[in-house]
Amino acid sequence: MSVKIGIRQEDKYAMERRTPLTPKHVKKLKEEYNLEFVVQTSSKRIFTDEEYLKAGAKIAEKLSECPVIMGVKEIPSDFFEKNKTYIFFSHVIKGQPYNMPMLKKMMELGCHLIDYERVADEQGRRLIFFGKFAGLAGMINSLWSLGQRLKELGYTNNPFLKIKQSYHYDSLAEAKKEISEVGREIAENGLPKELLPLTIGFTGYGNVSIGAQEIAALLPIKEISPEKLPELQNRKNLPDNIIYKTVFHEKHISKPKNSSHSFELQDYYNHPEKYENNFEQYIPHLTILMNCMYWDTRYPRIFTKNFARKLYEKGEPKIKVVGDVTCDPDGSIEFTHKGTEIEDPVFVYNPQTGKPRMGFKGDGILVMAVDILPSELPRDSSEAFGDALVNFIKPIADADFDLDFENLRLPAPIKKAMILHKGKLTKDYEYIQQYL
Q1: Quick one: pLDDT at residue 2?
Q2: How does DSSP assign 127-173, residue by residue?
Q3: Helices marked H in 285-377 — which ranges?
Q4: What confidence tens digit (pLDDT) does each residue in 52-65 have?
Q5: How many of the other CB atoms lie within 10 Å of CB of 415?
Q6: Which end of the chain is more exposed for a tag (fewer CB within 10 A), N or C?
Q7: Does the pLDDT of residue 424 top 70, yes or no?
Q8: How far is it, in rounded angstroms, from Cα 106 to Cα 90?
Q9: What is the pLDDT of residues 34-43, one digit of tens each?
């Protein structure tokens, strides 16, 4: 017999409005499999309590009757109950220190943890993700940020001023419509001569980058290779109604420390310590840098504080905005000191003082680093996420988690994503013990 499934309210951020399953998904699962859902009441969730009630769910203050509980972001340690199954983005697989107390608590209580981030097919491709929506919202925000920053620099009539921050749009369709209109205006009237060539660089080519490029494609875009990017600066009579786009792969971002060796992708993944930054050569030629790639501490940083300082010693550089969608504090963009909030999304980093200042004013590079970008498009992103997740819910509801892990019957992608079983790290995640 299937168990009751709880959907918790999100409380990590004031503006977190997403949900793992929408009323549409709840209705489908109830009608097809007679599954029962209990939804924790929330006044800010993009889908209202009433919508879930109409879909057949029960609304409650607490989820104590549910042995399986789903959420989006991390869950406070005092929320967990003994022997229950929790499904959410736990952010523990890199040994993130700020989430180790949460993981310890789950282990003490004998909980089961399934992490969406690790749900993948046999080729390792993620199956359930918000990443594309991080890219979509990140690019919208970065174009909005460019407009505001250019205004601060004296370009008071620049076309990007018509673009709003993502969460001000009712839907992705509405945002795309407005950005398309800005694209038409640029195509017809051009850009200020001083901003030419206006260039956007994308690190990475996965779901996040795909989403960001989808928004950029609404503008009059021409794609060029990274190798061609420096040549633009020397070209005369560049058209004023074209924006240039460049996508950077691993070989553009890092290079072997041994100059006699050529770049080998698999070697880079296996031995990142043998590589160093190769990206700095491109930064002076970019107007916007969209950082959309995966990064962890084994890999070289792509934009350091030291390089930013050297760049500014030569005067006001070309680069105006860093859209740090990756959003690793002190990470690949070293001066992203923290993920920002939707209500206070940008800061200007001054390379000479080494200090950030929230907002659009000040000397330096503007950084947009919202930590929960998909929540700026909460309806669209929740619907797409639920569409990918919905077919896994019935097997999870039917599973007997009291069985030994080897005998636990779950779809292979879900079983791969199980970090804790009965409070113990499963084999693939035993390495996390060193961080506890």
Answers
A1: 66
A2: SS--HHHHHHHHHHHHHHHHHHHHHHTT-TT-GGGG---GGGSSSHH
A3: 305-313
A4: 999 999 999 999 99
A5: 18
A6: N
A7: yes
A8: 11
A9: 999 999 999 9
What is the rounded CA–CA span in Å between residue 99 and residue 12? Answer: 12
Q: Are 392 and 386 in contact (CB under 8 A)?
A: no
Yes or no: say if 284 and 318 are a contact pair by the CB < 8 Å rule: yes
Give yes or no for residue 1 having a pLDDT over 60. Answer: no
Kindly report the backbone phi and psi dihedral angles of residue 21, in degrees, each rounded to the nearest multiple of 5, phi listed first: -135, 130
Which domains, from first to last, does the chain contain? 5-129+378-435 (3.40.50.720), 131-376 (3.40.50.720)
Q: How confident is the model at residue 48 (pLDDT cuts 50, 70, 90)?
A: very high
The H or E element that residue 287 is part of is none
Pairwise CA distance, residues 299 & 239, whole Å:
38
Q: Which amino acid is at 29?
A: L
Q: What is the pLDDT of residue 233?
A: 81
CA distance 93 to 434: 11
Beta-carbon contacts of 173 under 8 Å, excluding residues fewer than 6 positions away, are none
Predicted confidence (pLDDT) per residue in 343-357, tens digit: 999 999 999 999 999
Asked if 196 and 238 count as a contact pair (C-beta separation under 8 A), the reply is: yes
Q: Region 121-126: what's the mean pLDDT?
A: 89
Distance separating alpha carbons of residues 135 and 294, to the nearest angstrom:
13
List, as one string, the DSSP characters of 13-47: STT----SS-HHHHHHHHHHH---EEEE--SSSSS
**Cross-strand pairs, 199:** 244
* Distance of alpha carbon 295 from alpha carbon 149, whole angstroms: 27
